[in-house]
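Checklist before submission:
- one chain only
- standard amino acids only
- sequence pasted in full

Submission:
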Amino acid sequence: MTLSRPDQRIVVAVVYVAAMLMNTLDSTIVNVALATLGREFGVPPITTEAVVVGYLVSLAVFIPASGWLGDRFGTKRIFLLALAIFVIASALCGQAQSLEELIAFRVLQGAGGGLMTPVGMAMLYRTFPPRERVAVGRILMFATIFGPASGPIIGGLLIEHLSWRWAFYVNVPVGLIAFLVGILFLHEHREPAPGQFDLPGFLLGGIGLGLAMFALSEGPARGWTSPMILGSGVAGVVMLVAFVVVELRTPDPMVDLRLLGNRLFRTTQVVSFFGSGGFIGVLFLIPLFLQEVQGASPLESGLTTFPEAIGVVASTQLVARLYPRVGPRRLMCFGLLMVAVSIVLMAMIGLTSGPWVMRVLMFLVGAGMAYIFLPNQAASLATITRAQTGRATTISNVQRQLGAALGVAALSSVIAAMGGGGGQGDLGGYRAALFVAATLSLIGAISALWVPDEEAWETMVQRSSQPVTLTAE
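Returned file contents:
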């Protein structure tokens, strides 16, 4: 280790939080900008959804390759390459002169994001030993919660007072700082035997996941029986089934599905899948409800949903204290039950309910989610070896993307099936969709009962006051 270099825990935490905050902020800010993009380019608002879908599909294509690339070429090198692609693509998005250009640059941006998230998470878990995983959970929470919650507010301010181009330019200074810190201070890590590149796995997994994400993202808008959605969905499922068969038979698979045989890892992934579906579904639905049904502005909508982030931050401190004594199983079950009840109460809100009713309920949803995020992130990789970490974080990111897409697709489909949710008197669709989100959270709570606390014991040890000795990679 080079003595002049700062503690790797601090370096990895800084670059990861900066990169992930940039990534999560980008997604929500772009959602706020869609209506403005339609007016700017003279196209119907529905057409601008390709800006989001193109990014999600590209993200899905490149996630499966991220673990192998990090193991083979080094996590520092791949992370910084992905970060550079994301930042350059963000600047190009801000310079786009047509919707077609913007979509193309968003696809490039998705390639960077698809590599950056799993590789960054692998760096984080390799740097922090199991006894410090609660600290890792706090770091991850800041990046994954503050971004989506503050995105609508920041996006509304940027678009209202500057222009839609700043929805993308805002990534550039944050990304440059993260890149500079990373290139100067990050340690490199390569696995000694990453195996050969699994081309069949990459093609089947990347294309299959991309087609599935496209179908889930566009199904509610285009109709589930439309030839394009039906064809994409069926092809995606067939390719993913073939992907599972190929990966289980390959000595060095791109995505090591055998890791799902690890009981603690498998059960925490199931809880995360359903928890993500319900939670991201609510974050998608409530701004629409506030704007389409209650007539709020985008900025007012963002201010009303923001208490969710405050709830997470406030609740995290208590969860961190409880985790060593209570363990992940009961904390996650309680948290998702709390989220489900809060969402059901949201479904009771009417046209005349003031914004503070929703703000209190959003705070409770965030407070409940802290009981899932921190224990899940602390426990999920407790029994995963250092060599398996890159492949395990790939699986984690795939399931979260699919869970989030499934949640949004399910809620959107319910609204569309019940009349579209387009008028102030149309509450039925939104209420039914919220009940679906509550059901997903309830399934996650039941799934949490199977999480084996005893296998997560190493993460439940109180953090030692002794400094961690770091070795050069």
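Reviewer check: Confidence is low (pLDDT under 50) at residues 421-425, 463-473.
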